[in-house]
Amino acid sequence: MADIELFVDPVCPFSWVSSQWLLTAAEDSAHTVRLRQMSLAVLNDGHDVAADHKPMIDRSRRLGRVFAAATRTGGAEAFARLYDVIGTRLHIQGDDLGPQEVAKSLTEAGLDPGLAEHLDSTSLDDDITGTHEVSQAALGGRGGSPIVVVDGRGFNGPVLTEQPRPDRGRDLLDALVTAATTPGFAALQRPYQGPPKIDAATEETH
Q1: Which domains does the chain have, with CATH numbers?
Q2: Helix (H) / strand (E) containing 87
Q3: Quick one: pLDDT at residue 60?
């Protein structure tokens, strides 16, 4: 049995695909999985950001505050519930997620819709920075979303461009745990393979 943490920025589509694979694959296993927050906004503070990426960074900063408020209110379970709802709206339905949509998402996740007020509040920015720094410390360097930590060993990724079939998903989880817990294993990487393929039909099968 492995203890697995997946650090995600809720606005990252790659993290959404990876999280849905991991949660599904782990359902019938002895592994424990916990989702935690990291921040692309914090990661890119002080760095030049391409113009076409700036809207995502702004969304990361604002939505990240709501997730920090949810985590402070209800811990990792609240984060996971809100991620499921907002991730579906953002990555599958393509919603804009303004204040009203965020409030509805909070209600659907069983949380106080008033937490949407944190979108434009800096009061929990230190919380976001703190959990982001935990993700970087687990990785041992600077890295983006997602970051997986298996029994205390952190790695960038895993990055998936589409959901695997359930049987292949379980095989992939076994391979991840084997690689991550093998002394001396450091990295396995390919060049950028393009954006992930996300559609409702695929999500409904997992």
Answers
A1: 3-181 (3.40.30.10)
A2: helix 54-87
A3: 97
